[in-house]
Amino acid sequence: MEARAISRYNRQSSRKVRQAADLVRGKDIETALNILHFSSKKSSFSVEKTVRSAVSNLLNSEGGSGINPEDLYIKTIFVDEGNTTRRYRARAMGRASIIRRRTSHISVVVAEKKDRISNKTKNK
To answer: Could you tell me the pTM of the whole model?
Structure first.
């Protein structure tokens, strides 16, 4: 069984958020949340929030009441680029320079560990 959570229009660049997402890809939930919670990156807060939301979605889903949160892992996590709003700043001699305010979309899928084992045996 698996569940997903998507956090859209985060006010951080996708390149910076991917650094936090790469830290926890494929890890079990408890380890991933510890890594994100104690990471010094600003983007780790929004990734942690999205992971917690995905776990909550799985536990609140139909048939999710019997699932132990310790038996979950991050199946997939990826960060896409969102909209970029553009602002202008006045510069010397009547010119204007552009300021790009980038956003990102975080997608997390969590699944049970027994699914990971059965998928490995199917691929062989």
So the answer is: 0.85
